[in-house]
Specification:
Radius of gyration: 25 Å
Helix content: 40-55%
Number of helices: 18
Strand content: 15-25%
CATH architecture of the largest domain: 3-Layer(aba) Sandwich
CATH class of the largest domain: Alpha Beta
Distance between the termini: 66 Å
C-alpha cells in the first residue's frame, strides 16, 4: 500500500492550524508544506513534494495561470471559498471548492479529488482510495455538486457561461490575420469594422501583441489596455457584459474598440485562454467581433487553449475560436509565396475554417500590368477554387488614417473604398441575417 498523499497548504492564518491538524489526522493525507504565498506553492509543485494543494481564494495573485501551472506539475487544486462564491470562481478551473471554516469538509474534498483519478501518485495523478471505488465515485460526484453549487437552474450562470452553453451566444468572431510581411492587416480590420457598423453592432479587438496599432488608427489616447484588463479578469472569474462594456471604448453608437497592449514587451499579460473566454462573452453583446492579430511564426503550437503560452499560442487560440478568418497578404510575388505556407498553417490549426483571401496593396508595379489576373493565376495551382478579394494600393488610405478616419467613409467612391466596402459585405455574410 502506498503512503499518504502529500498536501501543500496555503490557507488563511485563522484556519490553517485546524486544517493542518485535520489533514494529518486522516489516514490518506499528510501536510507536506505550509506555504506563506503562491510563490512557495509553485516552488513546492516543481519539487514534486505533494500531489494536492489547498489555496485561499482570497489570495490576490490566484488566477487560472497559477492553477494551470500547478496542474502542469500534476497537482490537484482545492480552493477555499464560501460555496456562494463558486460560480464566480469557475474560471479558475480548480478541481474543487471547499468552505474555509470546515476542516473536515476540506478533507472530504481531498478524498473526492483522490477518487477522481485511477492512477498512482508515481504517474503524476491522484490515486483511487478505498475498496469500493464505484460507490465512492458516486459519493464524489454528489460531493462535487454540493461543493460547486452549480446544480440547478441557469440563474447562477454568468453571461459568459450562458454564451458557452449556447443559450445567449449569437455574435460572430472574424479574425484578421496574415503571413509575416503582409501589410495592412490592422487597416483592413479597422475599415471592415467601420463599414460593418452601419448595419451591425461591432466590437473591434486589437489582439496584435507584436505591433498593436488600432488605438492610434482610431485616434484614441490610450492610457490602459482594454484587452489586458479583460484578460486579467477572465483569468480570475467569468467575464460578463459589465466587464466587456467597462473595458471597451465606444467609437460610434454601433462600434466599440477593445484596445491592445500598451507595449509589445507586455504580451505575457494577454492570456490565450482568457482572451478566448472574453471573446466568447462578447458574442452576447455584439453581432460581429473583428479581431486583429499578429503574424505567427508558423511553428507548431499546443492543441488546446492555455493560459500560459507564446504569441503564436494566442494567435492559434483566436483562429480556432473564430467563425471566419481573413487571411491578408501582399499582392505581389513575395506576398503570394508567404501566403502558401500560412494558408496550410491555418488549415492545420482550424480545419473548420475556409479563410477569406485578401490581397492588399495590389498594384501594377508589384504584380504586372494586369495584377488581378496575375494574382489569381499564381494562386490557382496551390489554392484552387478560392475567390480572392483585392484591395488596390492607394495613398489616400494613409491620408485618411492621418485624420483617424476609415477610408470606407472618407473615400467611398474611390476604388480602394469600394474594394473595402465589397470586402465588408463578404465578412457580413457570416451573420445569419446577411447570409444569402
Amino acid at each position: 500500500m502506498s503512503g499518504p498523499i502529500g498536501v501543500i497548504v496555503c490557507a488563511p492564518t485563522q484556519t490553517e492550524g485546524r486544517l493542518v491538524q485535520a489533514i494529518n489526522e486522516s489516514e490518506e493525507f499528510t501536510v507536506s508544506r505550509r506555504c506563506a504565498d503562491l510563490t512557495e506553492v509553485r516552488a513546492c509543485a516543481r519539487s514534486s513534494v505533494a500531489q494536492c494543494a489547498i489555496i485561499d481564494a482570497d489570495d490576490p495573485d490566484l488566477d487560472a495561470r497559477i492553477v494551470e501551472d500547478l496542474h502542469a506539475h500534476h497537482i490537484g487544486v482545492i480552493v477555499l471559498a464560501p460555496l456562494a462564491d463558486a460560480p464566480s470562481l469557475r474560471a479558475l478551473h480548480a478541481d474543487g471548492i471547499a468552505q474555509p471554516d470546515s476542516p473536515d469538509g476540506i478533507v472530504d474534498s481531498l478524498r473526492a479529488l483522490g477518487m477522481s483519478a485511477s492512477f498512482s501518485p508515481e504517474s503524476g495523478e491522484l490515486p483511487q482510495t478505498g475498496e469500493d471505488a464505484s460507490g465512492r465515485r458516486e459519493a464524489q460526484i454528489a460531493h462535487q455538486k454540493r461543493s460547486y453549487a452549480f446544480a440547478d437552474g441557469d440563474d447562477e450562470l454568468s453571461d459568459a457561461q450562458r454564451s458557452v452553453d449556447g443559450t445567449a451566444e449569437f455574435g460572430k468572431i472574424v479574425c484578421v490575420w496574415g503571413p509575416s510581411g503582409a501589410p495592412g492587416r490592422s487597416t483592413i480590420a479597422f475599415n471592415v469594422a467601420a463599414g460593418a457598423s452601419a448595419s451591425a453592432r461591432v466590437l473591434l479587438v486589437d489582439a496584435d501583441t507584436c505591433a498593436p496599432s488600432l488605438a492610434h488608427m482610431a485616434g484614441i489616447a490610450q492610457d490602459a489596455s482594454g484587452i489586458a484588463v479583460l484578460s486579467r479578469t477572465a483569468a480570475r472569474t467569468d467575464v460578463g457584459a459589465d466587464e466587456i462594456r467597462g473595458a471597451a471604448v465606444p467609437l460610434t453608437d454601433s462600434l466599440d474598440i477593445l484596445t491592445g497592449i500598451t507595449s509589445p514587451q507586455r504580451w505575457r499579460e494577454v492570456s490565450p485562454a482568457a482572451v478566448v473566454s472574453a471573446l466568447s462573452a462578447a458574442r452576447s453583446l455584439y453581432d460581429l467581433i473583428i479581431v486583429d492579430v499578429a503574424a505567427a511564426t508558423l511553428d507548431p503550437v499546443a492543441p488546446g487553449n492555455r493560459h500560459q503560452g507564446s504569441r503564436d499560442d494566442l494567435v492559434a487560440a483566436i483562429v480556432r475560436s473564430a467563425d471566419a478568418v481573413m487571411c491578408v497578404f501582399r499582392g505581389d510575388s513575395l506576398g503570394i509565396n508567404r501566403l502558401v505556407d500560412a494558408y496550410q498553417w491555418v488549415g492545420q490549426i482550424a480545419p473548420h475554417v475556409e479563410p477569406i483571401l485578401v490581397a492588399n496593396h495590389v498594384s501594377s508595379s508589384g504584380a504586372g500590368p494586369r495584377p488581378v489576373n496575375a494574382i489569381v493565376q499564381a494562386l490557382a495551382p496551390v489554392i484552387p477554387g478560392r475567390s480572392i478579394q483585392l484591395v488596390p494600393e492607394d495613398s489616400r488610405v494613409s491620408a485618411s488614417l492621418l485624420h483617424a478616419r476609415a477610408i470606407v467613409h472618407a473615400e467611398p467612391d474611390q476604388p480602394v473604398g469600394q474594394a473595402l466596402a465589397a470586402l465588408t459585405q463578404v465578412v457580413l455574410a457570416v451573420l445569419p441575417e446577411h447570409a444569402a
